[in-house]
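Protein record
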Amino acid sequence: LKSGKLEILTGGWVMTDEANSHYFGIISQLIEGHEWLSNHIGEDYKPRNHWSIDPFGLSPTVSYFMKKSNFSNGVLQRVHYSVKKHLAGTKQLEFIWRQLWTERQVSSVCLKDFSYISVVADGVRLGISGAALLYDQYRKKAQLFKTNVILVPLGDDFRYDTPFEWESQFTNYMKLFKYMNAQLPWNVNVRLQRFLPALLF
């Protein structure tokens, strides 16, 4: 945390089920999580960004609570495909979520992730065709955004639970990035890097 390589997002006790939760439960779990962070990690690491990639439904109420909790940005994932299709077609995947009763609040919609692909201990086995496929997906995704930065989440709720997986993912992606960046015909200016959600906003 001190070096900036890890960021605490939202900081609630759980990721709220936005479709069915009562506002008391939403606020209570947020308070519980923030008090735990304050007591065990310290005041210097208060979350500044909201992360909501796997709730069952999205609620403008939760966005409102996040804004009132001093979050200025958010990342959303589970959005109806027709909404994603519209946003992608109009290059609005990075958008300002305006609610009828609030001011502007920034959120992002992320597309497909590859978290269900099993971990490969040695990235060399992925081969050139795998790197080309991944690069092509990144290239296609980049065409849906206004900016030259895209967010590609890696993993899900049940990932990165062992040191082996952390090391394997890091090592494999560094090999893939090195290979992609060496392919001049693909795009001389392609730049792939790891970063924290805070750097998006």
